[in-house]
């Protein structure tokens, strides 16, 4: 790795602190990880930010971090699988901060499991959180997005288009999200509402990578990334801010892959390691 590649950089710092001034963002899963990274990027670009998740304490801690960045912040806990609770969280955000102009569907669940062994409820749980949760987010943000001619951003994953062992539930859910994104771009375009997806690659310091690299190890993952490293939450946040605000004004129905190129390479290293360690089988 060259010195230039190792240099700590601040992609959000290249964006104007007024880029999202006047915008109100609602972010599911915004209490942690990549989605909190997106919330912080929005806050640094001048948006008011509402976050949603199941855990009140996690939301409160994240809200403190966002307020420290100068943002007006709101949160109300909800499970994205529960339409009434999620609608209440979205309406609460709008009451506190104003009409929502950016909705981000980022909440998700993931674990490795063999397709033939996981229970129907295990499969359904991931589809419910990822796909139904994304639909609920767009559905209940719609009245606000219609008034603001806003934007919805779906946080997807490479599993949506690249086949993997032990990820059938995630692949089905994320692939569904990609088509939902395109359908809404067509159906809501006449209202001025834009709909896009962002596909992160392996991002450092996240629960997702803690789960996915637990068996195969970080180095195996990094070798699979053409750029040779994990991405940062800030790199995802910066792209989300570009797509969700005026810089993305003519972008809709598009999938943005921010993955260091891993979507182009084999996932065999993961399957072999998972088989060895997780399922304790000889290969
Ligand atoms: N392997 C196989 N099945 C699993 C599993 C695993 N590792 N983890 C959970 N399940 C099954 C459960 O057994 C249950 O099925 P059952 O009722 O037939 O036994 C079903 O999935 C639901 O599990 P439960 O723990 O009740 O769900 P939950 O709603 O409390 O939690 C999860 C959802 C399972 C996705 C949980 O991991 C979670 O909350 N994840 C959020 C964080 C995360 O995944 N971050 C990474 C984002 S990419
Ligand atoms: P994370 O920190 O675990 O993010 C998931 C968030 O969603 C948590 O804040 C969680 O909070 C919330 N959540 C989970 N289930 C929920 C539910 N039913 N209702 C409401 N909120 C719920 O994981 P992450 O790794 O940063 O992943 C964030 C997003 O990026 C996901 O969409 C994931 O698929 C995507 N992604 C991640 C990577 C990666 O490298 N990490 C790569 C590709 C894509 P509570 O538990 O408090 O509810």
From TrEMBL:
Assigned keywords, A-Z: NADP, Oxidoreductase
Pfam families associated with the record: adh_short_C2 (PF13561)
Protein origin, superkingdom: Bacteria
Keyword Methyltransferase in record: no
InterPro entries: DECR2-like (IPR045017), NAD(P)-bd_dom_sf (IPR036291), SDR_fam (IPR002347)
Gene3D superfamilies referenced in this protein's UniProt entry, alphabetically: NAD(P)-binding Rossmann-like Domain
This protein's name: NAD(P)-dependent dehydrogenase (Short-subunit alcohol dehydrogenase family)
Source species of the chain: Enteractinococcus fodinae
């Amino acid at each position: 790795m060259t010195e230039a590649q190792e240099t700590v950089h601040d992609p959000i710092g290249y964006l104007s602190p007024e880029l999202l001034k006047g915008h109100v963002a609602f972010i599911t899963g915004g209490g942690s990880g990549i989605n909190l990274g997106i919330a912080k990027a929005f806050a640094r670009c001048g948006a008011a930010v509402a976050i949603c998740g199941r855990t009140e304490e996690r939301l409160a801690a994240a809200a403190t971090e966002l307020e420290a960045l100068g943002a007006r912040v709101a949160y109300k806990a909800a499970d994205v699988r529960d339409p009434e609770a999620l609608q209440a969280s979205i309406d609460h955000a709008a009451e506190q901060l104003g009409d929502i102009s950016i909705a981000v569907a980022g909440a998700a669940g993931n674990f490795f499991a063999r397709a033939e062994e996981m229970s129907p409820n295990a499969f359904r749980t991931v589809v419910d959180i990822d796909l139904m949760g994304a639909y609920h987010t767009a559905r209940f943000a719609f009245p606000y997005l219609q008034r603001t001619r806003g934007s919805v951003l779906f946080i997807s994953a490479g599993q949506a288009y690249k086949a993997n062992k032990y990820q059938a539930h995630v692949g089905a859910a994320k692939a569904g999200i990609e088509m939902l994104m395109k359908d809404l771009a067509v159906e809501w375009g006449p209202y001025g509402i834009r709909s896009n997806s962002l596909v992160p690659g392996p991002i450092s310091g996240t629960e997702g990578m803690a789960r996915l690299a637990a068996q195969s190890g970080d180095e195996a993952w990094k070798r699979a990334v053409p750029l040779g490293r994990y991405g940062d939450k800030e790199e995802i946040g910066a792209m989300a801010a570009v797509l969700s605000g005026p810089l993305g004004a003519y972008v809709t129905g598009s999938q943005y892959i921010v993955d260091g190129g891993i979507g182009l390479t084999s996932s065999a290293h993961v399957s072999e390691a998972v088989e060895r360690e997780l399922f304790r089988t000889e290969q």
